[in-house]
Design goal:
Length: 71
């Protein structure tokens, strides 16, 4: 089952960007030993040329998207 990102919250100031991803599968986005999470954070830092504060929050699958898990 693929993770579904249900919401993205971005707060930016001159020194850093704070990003919160709400997903139904936090563990899949973190990856083994946190490798996927660290790689995403590194790519975002390069893309925006700012420090990145990235966090993940567990969120249930939104209504209407739960069919993805059953097929």
């Amino acid at each position: 089952v693929q993770p579904i990102i249900t919401n993205i919250i971005v707060d930016e100031n001159e020194n850093y960007i704070e990003i919160t991803l709400h997903t139904n599968r936090v563990g899949l986005l973190i990856g083994k030993n946190g490798d996927t999470f660290d790689e995403l954070k590194k790519r975002l830092k390069i893309m925006f040329n700012k420090e990145i504060d990235l966090s993940l929050r567990e969120s249930p699958t939104p209504f209407g998207l739960d069919f993805i898990e059953t097929y």
